[in-house]
């Protein structure tokens, strides 16, 4: 017995490229799922189940048979059969779903306890409702361009402030220890200091994603599980919920303000500001790229195509590695690189 799936809503998001999927439309993909080029993970196969619309009768490849009630019951264990809406979002629950999707999720996930970690790493294609209150719910959502519109003017303005202050020519390194040997910082150094800030951001991006977002909450701690879900867990549960892919500017400004303060304390005068503005620019690029890696359809062979495949592997298969999002760079020294797939003959 073979199953038929409607992938029209997913085809653009497919990490292996849209073309590859379109070429296989209407064919049996069970062998292709094993690759090459890519051996699909258990999560990817479960993902495919979400688009199930019916059966294929043996001998009638093009015919359309109704969904097998047993399969539907299996997929929709928690719901009545009449909630089944083929061709649209899968409004049913997978059997392993432990929460009630009709209710806001945020206050439920803490009860999952030791089942939380496995549950949160089984992605589904459906939007998440976090809060009961419409107001809080709308605050928790951010369109990608809001991040761009809020922070780009800040980057431009602070760059101008940094550059013009450096141009006055009285910024010196080490001037608090020595007056004779302090080093003047010329205004033409600004692009390099800015770049340093961007590189520091990429390290910060790695560290935050690995050690804050992927900190495993203790199974017995309801509140830490809830916090984990709010910060990053919900993105792993529903990786294609477009309204929650970027960081909302209000909480972001608290974190950004903290790092601004640290840099101003550590570095003299306008240097701290120059590094900061580079870092902020790095953050904006990162958030835009993360959105694109989920929603964009980069051409095969490009840098972004490779990054997209890499990031989707972090979501579906290798949640304990591949923490770099805008660059794979820091995964090398920290030894968390997702290995390339090899298709040598095994016996
Ligand atoms: Zn695929
Ligand atoms: Zn992650
Ligand atoms: Zn992601």
TrEMBL record:
InterPro entries: Cyt_B5-like_heme/steroid-bd, Cyt_B5-like_heme/steroid_sf, Cyt_B5_heme-BS, Fatty_acid_hydroxylase, Scs7. Pathway: Lipid metabolism; Sphingolipid metabolism. Heme binds at residues 14, 40. Zn(2+) binds at residues 209, 214, 232, 235-236, 290, 294, 311, 314-315. The chain crosses the membrane at residues 143-163, 188-208, 245-267, 273-293. One of its GO terms (molecular function) is fatty acid 2-hydroxylase activity. GO terms for biological process: fatty acid biosynthetic process. It is found in: Endoplasmic reticulum membrane. The keyword Hydrolase does not apply. The keyword Cell wall biogenesis/degradation does not apply. Keywords: Endoplasmic reticulum, Fatty acid biosynthesis, Fatty acid metabolism, Heme, Iron, Lipid biosynthesis, Lipid metabolism, Membrane, Metal-binding, Oxidoreductase, Transmembrane, Transmembrane helix, Zinc. Binds 2 Zn(2+) ions per subunit that likely form a catalytic dimetal center. Residues 6-57 form the Cytochrome b5 heme-binding domain. Belongs to the sterol desaturase family. SCS7 subfamily. This is FA2H hydroxylase. It comes from Oriolus oriolus. The lineage of its organism: Eukaryota, Metazoa, Chordata, Craniata, Vertebrata.
